[in-house]
């Protein structure tokens, strides 16, 4: 079973603030979370790692 990252984990792994993650998510530039319960969301670890890899590729290619 794949690990689920809660927001705190995503903040640590990406280096982004909570507000930046929500801003990017609302702009369609960050992966959608999955609903874990009525008041909890999370992201599959692989989805976050893929997003990080994409961002690194954009920087490397001079697109950011």
Main beta sheet strand tally, sense and closure: 3 strands, antiparallel
Our count of helices gives 3
Q: Approximately how much beta-strand content do the residues carry? A: 15-25%
Supply Rg: 12 Å
Distance linking N and C termini: 34 Å
Q: Roughly what percent helix?
A: 40-55%
Overall form: globular
Query: Pairing-aware structural class of the strands and helices?
Result: alpha+beta
SSE layout and pairings?
Layout: E1 4-5, H1 7-14, H2 18-26, E2 34-37, E3 40-44, H3 45-60
Antiparallel strand pairs: 1-3, 2-3
Quick summary:
This protein is α+β, with helices and mostly antiparallel strands and 64 residues long. Helix content is 52%, strand content 17%.
Q: Could you please describe the fold and organization of this structure?
A:
There is one protein chain. This protein is an alpha+beta fold and 64 residues long. It has one domain (4-60). It contains three helices and three strands. It has helices at residues 7-14, 18-26, 45-60, and strands at residues 4-5, 34-37, 40-44. Strands 1-3-2 form a three-stranded antiparallel sheet. The radius of gyration is 12 Å and the shape is globular. Pfam families: Phage_AlpA. This is AlpA family transcriptional regulator.
């Amino acid at each position: 079973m794949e690990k689920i990252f809660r927001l705190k984990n995503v903040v640590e792994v990406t280096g982004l603030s909570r507000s930046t993650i929500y801003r990017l998510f609302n702009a369609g530039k960050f992966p959608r979370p999955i609903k874990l319960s009525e008041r909890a969301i999370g992201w599959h670890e692989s989805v976050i790692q893929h997003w990080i890899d994409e961002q690194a590729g954009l920087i490397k290619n001079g697109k950011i």
